Amino acid sequence: GDSVTQMEGPVTLSEEAFLTINCTYTATGYPSLFWYVQYPGEGLQLLLKATKADDKGSNKGFEATYRKETTSFHLEKGSVQVSDSAVYFCALGHASGGSYIPTFGRGTSLIVHP
Amino acid sequence: ETGVTQSPTHLIKTRGQQVTLRCSSQSGHNTVSWYQQALGQGPQFIFQYYREEENGRGNFPPRFSGLQFPNYSSELNVNALELDDSALYLCASSSGVATNEQFFGPGTRLTVL
What we know:
The structure holds two protein chains of two kinds. The mean pLDDT of chain A is 92. Chain A is mainly β. In chain A, strands 2, 5, 6, 10, 11 and 12 form a six-stranded mixed beta sheet that branches. In chain A, strands 3-9-8-7 form a four-stranded antiparallel beta sheet, with no helix packed on it. In chain A, strands 1-4 form a two-stranded antiparallel ribbon. Chain A has strands spanning 3-6, 11-14, 19-21, 23-26, 32-38, 44-50, 56-59, 62-65, 75-77, 86-96, 99-104, 108-113. Chain B is mainly beta. Chain B contains no helices and eleven strands. In chain B, a hairpin with a 6-residue loop joins β4 and β5. Chains A and B meet through β5, β6, β10 and β11 of A and β5, β9 and β10 of B.
């Protein structure tokens, strides 16, 4: 079945540092790939997505490229801020039997210090 | 445009009891999905409702059931609560079953004692 593996956290960085959170997946077919962010006490928010190989999703300075050859979708940001502290979830999904059912990774906590 | 809302925010129940969680979908969305997020884990898909019918189910026992109403709001019911049911329950709405973009509510934190 489908699965998503994320690097274990927490990832602790100083403000303005470069961020990479690794994500690899196992799936049949050609899923769409997503990054969601969850701030403390809140639900998930879609951060970015890519729907086919070599697509790059980007939003709020975050980027991730759909790499089919390495089955990866690593999240990057050039300069993190304290406000980026949150839990980040990598997910994949594709329509199956007429419905869309996503599979999430376990999440990676990011802590950014001033 | 009103986003996805869930009620209650927090809930404490004892083992064996029954619970009902509620979700109002975002305006214009006719599909609601429910997820269970245990502490330190990613969300696990429970089931999806489309036009008042269940349209896909994850690996959860029948004591997890749901409803969707004509206004597309939804309920998640859990019978015979177990300690392991303690989790954050998330509702997400979307404009159709095959769309890959879902909008999540803030969740209901259920604690089973």
